[in-house]
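[recover] target loaded
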């Protein structure tokens, strides 16, 4: 983590787009070649905030589940009915409910209703969004290897954030969502650069990565808002590289900061091709600044023993989610 961006302003764009998609709005190769890294980062931020920008479109069933999860009067049968329209999401929910992370030793579920009941409304929301992100966001042939590291990193940080939440006393389900979404702007930025290109025609990340990394918090915040997710989540995404603006810790951003640091230590790192296509060397990217980790640790008043316990818990969790 290198920069200290402030929380992003809410863009004047709609919150719902129907169907499927890969994100709309792009920057031409000619324009990219004219801009230095700082100017390109500003151009990317401008694009993310533009009314023309549309993030990758989530499956219709996922969008409906997100909407229903905000309704305090929603009934289980309504959620089950929506899931029944999307076999991929239905299968993911059933499988996840039977996994060691959620089963609590209770074994198999016999019906979709049992799976939803076991996960709970917000747990279901998180699993559906995780599946939708993997299906529709963390994908582009142009940057397949890099996008895969972002996907894996985000999933691990989501689960690490859920686990870390009990150490720092924030909501575990909201922490999971924050961890899942924290680097969505990197994926969104790759889709902007790729713009439907084949791998051999896509711009080299060795030239443009610094710009993408600088712009990704703005991109992530824009994507969160356009998907109609909570404003608090957009704030966390905006602050995950500066969890203590003005010297005052944002607890959820601090939780994600700790979770991301542990994920990186254990091997779930964002990486990109640093050779311009000339070789197979991958550079680690978007690395958490240890100074932020110390700031967060001190703000949460975590002792050395608690930090060690947290890391041991992370090591035990990692093989289950990586």
């Amino acid at each position: 983590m290198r920069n200290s961006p402030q929380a992003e302003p809410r863009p004047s764009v709609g919150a719902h787009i129907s169907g499927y998609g890969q994100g709309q709005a792009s920057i031409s190769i000619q324009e990219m070649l004219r801009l230095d890294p700082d100017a390109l980062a500003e151009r990317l931020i401008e694009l993310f905030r533009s009314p023309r920008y549309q993030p990758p479109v989530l499956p219709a069933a996922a969008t409906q589940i997100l909407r229903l999860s905000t309704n305090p009067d929603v009934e289980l049968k309504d959620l089950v009915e929506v899931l029944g329209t999307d076999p991929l999401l239905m299968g993911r929910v059933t499988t996840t409910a039977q996994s060691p992370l959620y089963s609590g030793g209770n074994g198999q579920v016999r019906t979709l209703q049992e799976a939803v009941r076991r996960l709970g409304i917000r747990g279901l929301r998180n699993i559906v969004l995780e599946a939708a992100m993997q299906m529709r966001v963390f994908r582009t042939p142009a940057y397949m290897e890099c996008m895969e590291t972002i996907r894996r990193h985000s999933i691990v940080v989501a689960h690490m954030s859920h686990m870390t939440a009990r150490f720092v006393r924030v909501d575990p389900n909201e922490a999971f969502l924050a961890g899942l979404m924290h680097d969505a702007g990197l994926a969104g930025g790759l889709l902007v650069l790729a713009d439907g290109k084949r791998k051999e025609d896509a711009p080299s990340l060795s030239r443009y990565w610094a710009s993408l990394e600088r712009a990704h918090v703005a991109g992530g915040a824009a994507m969160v808002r356009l998907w109609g997710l909570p404003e608090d989540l957009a704030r966390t995404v905006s602050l995950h590289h500066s969890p203590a603006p003005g010297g005052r810790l944002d607890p959820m951003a601090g939780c994600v900061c700790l979770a991301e640091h542990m994920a990186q230590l254990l091997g779930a790192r964002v990486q990109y091709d640093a050779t311009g296509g000339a070789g197979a060397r991958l550079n680690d990217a978007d690395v958490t600044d240890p100074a932020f980790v110390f700031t967060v640790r001190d703000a949460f008043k975590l002792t050395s023993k608690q930090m060690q316990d947290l890391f041991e818990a992370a090591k035990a969790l990692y093989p289950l989610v990586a």
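[recover] notes: Residues 144-168 form the longest helix (25 residues).
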